[in-house]
Amino acid sequence: MQPAHHCLLFLLLYLLLLSGTWADLEGTITIRLLQTSTFQNTSFVDTEGLGLLQDIELGSLDKHTWNIRFYQPWVRPSLPRGDWDTIENMIKIYLQQFNHLINEGAMQKDVPYPFVAQCVAGCELYPNRTSQAFAYVGYNGQDFLSFDTNNATWLLSQDTDLSRYVQDVLRNYTAFTELVEVLFNDTCVDDMELLLHYGKAALERQELPVATVFARTPSPAQLLLVCRVTGFYPRPISVAWLRDGQEVPPGPALNTSTILPNADLTYQLRSILAAAPHDGHSYTCRVRHRSLGTRSLLIPWGNSEAVLIAGLSAGLLAAVAVAAIIALWVWRCRKHQQMLESESRNSILSKEA
């Protein structure tokens, strides 16, 4: 039976080969394999696994059967069914040995149950066709170990008896370290390009941002201008405030939220600028995003909006005035016609008499 870490690296290699043509795509592409194992006691471990291409969920592990569940229709066709069967078998072998190794170390070092072990591993591919591998191990939500791909060594993120013990175990797997170097430093890009075209459409998906600007007044002396941007994809975006056409620099008056996901697999954020009411400046929210190309989305607030509202009000008043004049003219015409018809009937009756 292969060592657990051999199985892990073979598993990573297969999961790295799950998508579309990288050569035609812009920017850095990252694939991550996430594993979370909750050790309730020596006999029960709850494990979850997720594969990500950028922010696209490729698939996950069924926690009961450890089988792969595919989230994207193009993932399964990327490899033959026999290869997926091999991957699932390797996952099961790896998890069995991983759980045994962790439990054995926990008992030797008197680690109290329950505890959580997390693993993140993957590869970044850059536009110049170079790559960088990474692997991190966490314990109870804290950094534990990391892999230095340049020197092929495991580094301590925290210096404890347990972390040193795990580091020594990994150092003894010299074949594992050599395999990491070969897979990630030599063949990662070549193998990725073979299947990246399967996910090209998903990677190139673009959704235009929708932006609105409104104000809040927490106090009479303070005005908070809010620029809400939502519905955009991919995730990278630039949102800035312009005061009289000049970009407002970072400072205590400017507060921009983190980018948050929407339920429809797009993103949103808010940028809030503190200003003094009636300060005489004009403000505009500027949004730049890949879907806009070289253009920028500009949403004004202040004088320009007031002019727009005033213009609408003036136009509405003018329309009401014109309608009133027309109604009065029609009423007078009808009244005049009724008078003529009445005089005509009276004339006819007088002649008959």
Describe the structure.
The structure is a single chain. It contains 6 helices and 17 strands. It is of the alpha+beta class. The chain folds into 2 domains: 4-203, Murine Class I Major Histocompatibility Complex, H2-DB, Chain A, domain 1; 210-305, Immunoglobulins (Immunoglobulin-like). β1 (29-41) and β2 (44-53) form a beta hairpin. α1 crosses α2. The N and C termini lie far apart (128 Å).
Portion in helices:
25-40%
How many β strands by DSSP?
17
The major pleated sheet works out as:
8 strands, antiparallel
| Uncertain stretches of 5 or more adjacent residues | 1-23, 303-318
Number of domain modules: 2
What's the CATH superfamily of the largest domain, by name?
A: MHC class I-like antigen recognition-like
Shape: elongated
Query: What is the CATH architecture descriptor of the largest domain?
Result: 2-Layer Sandwich
Structural classification: alpha+beta
Helix/strand order, N-terminal first:
HEEEEHEEEEHHHEEEEEEEEEH
Mean pLDDT: 78
CATH class of the largest domain: Alpha Beta
Estimated share of beta-strand residues: 25-35%
The CATH topology of the largest domain is given as: Murine Class I Major Histocompatibility Complex, H2-DB, Chain A, domain 1
Lateral arrangement of strands in the main beta sheet: 4-3-2-1-5-6-7-8
Please identify the oligomeric state.
single chain
Work out the radius of gyration.
34 Å
Gap from first CA to last CA: 128 Å
Number of helices: 6
Features:
Murine Class I Major Histocompatibility Complex, H2-DB, Chain A, domain 1, 8-stranded antiparallel sheet, 5-stranded antiparallel sheet, 2 domains, elongated, single chain, disordered N terminus, 33% strand, Immunoglobulin-like, alpha+beta, 353 residues
